[in-house]
Design a protein that fits this description.
This protein has a single domain, classed as Beta Barrel (Small Protein B, Chain: A). Helices cover about 35% and strands about 35% of the residues. It contains 4 helices and 9 strands. The longest helix has 26 residues. It starts with 7 loop residues before the first strand and ends with a helix.
């Protein structure tokens, strides 16, 4: 629905594109503490094992690692704490219905800054089987070979 517009991309979850078929994407705000946003602006964020869940009518982001801020002293945050995502009620209801369906997962694919606010791109995804992953790799390799051949042909 919503597209990630302009802004500085802080982290991407490339593994999600390998492990899942991305169906739809949603832009959500994040509820953060002061030291978290400072650390994120420095680029100290990782989405490696992150996932989102709809709990009690709200969406929460789990396992997103935000490194502690160096100058944060005792006010620093827990790096793996659960963070609340800000979405419209209609979007939350839609996601809740879709996640209840067989095989759908809510995966964060990007974290970025937009107009000074931290945003996360949540994707509604379906898991890939092993043969699907192999097929994706074959397609990518074939496209790379085609591009290489075209480039070499233009040079000659």
């Amino acid at each position: 629905m919503a597209k990630s517009g302009e802004g500085k991309i802080l982290a991407q979850n490339r593994k999600a594109y390998h492990d899942y078929f991305i169906e739809e994407t949603f832009e959500a705000g994040l509820v953060l503490t002061g030291t978290e946003i400072k650390s994120m602006r420095k680029g100290s964020v990782s989405l490696r094992d992150a996932y989102a869940r709809v709990e009690k009518g709200e969406v929460f982001l789990h396992n997103m690692h935000v490194a502690p801020y160096e100058q944060g002293n005792r006010f620093n945050h827990d790096p793996l704490r659960t963070r609340k995502c800000l979405l419209h009620r209609k979007e939350i209801n839609y996601l809740f219905g879709a996640v209840r369906e067989q095989g759908y997962t809510l995966v964060p694919t990007k974290v970025y800054l937009k107009h000074g606010f931290a945003k996360v791109e949540l994707s509604l995804a379906k898991g890939k089987k092993l043969h699907d992953k192999r097929e994706s790799l074959k397609k990518r390799d074939a496209n790379r070979e085609i591009e290489r051949a075209l480039r070499d042909r233009q040079r000659a």
